[in-house]
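User: structure tokens for this one?
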Amino acid sequence: MKSVLYDVPAPAKINLFLHVVGQRSDGYHMLQTVFRFVDLYDILDFELRTDGQIRLVNSEHLGWPEHEDLAIKAGMLLQKATSSNYGVNINIRKNIPAGAGLGGGSSNAASALIALNRLWDTGLNRDQLTELARSLGADVPVFVNGDSVFAQGTGDIFETVHLKPAYYVLVMPDASVNTTVVFKHNDLTRDTKLVKVSDFTDWQGPGYFGQNNLEAVAFKTQPNVYNTAQVLKGLGLNARMTGSGSCFFVESKSLDQARLIQQKISVKIKTRESVTSRVIRQTWLTEGLNEHPLKHWTSS
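Assistant:
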């Protein structure tokens, strides 16, 4: 049995489209979306403990209490489900911003489940881990599953889709978005027409398939999200917000084109007057992944 697992990746995700197609009586929204992983990662380190304690060793640097961290909750869930006597120290090196719609917390939880299943030798397969992940949040099962998926329901019903190679320039506004606020907003569209997975896979363009129904509400609740959209539009870029925001992505078929897009945005940021220079916080050039980097850490 290993005593440490260092440099465990937790990739970001983007939603290539996101439709809100209904709302259940319990308040949960019914969605249709496609998740794709990209190579922007949080990095997690795990050190085995034999006293059963599960600790986040750098919570003071993350900005939230240890007991609220999804990786800690994932460890506690796995420990209880398998009656493991082991514990762990978890260190998280954050690169995925919070409140960006990139799934950082959910990804950390999934990577923790997968890594601790190996570190503690609990022997659960992918389906068993996916079932555990459902109680941690709507996106967590997708990360455990390990493939790009067309997701429905509350995001918990999904099927694998095969996506073409692509690069994505991610653009982070100087703003974060509260997912709960967006979904509770009176102006949220909740009756978008249902689509089939073949509608997406057969899509030939131009532009992106469908839409992100959460964009309009994010624009109203966070001015810098709207301002960023306007900056990108003014540059002639076709950008879409991912998840509930606040991050946008611009898709490109080639690495060279993606580099030019990122450079174009960077030049614009540097040449704007000081009042508006804080609209965009950061950009990343990322590649779309075919599968989660930990997919083969568990048996199917």
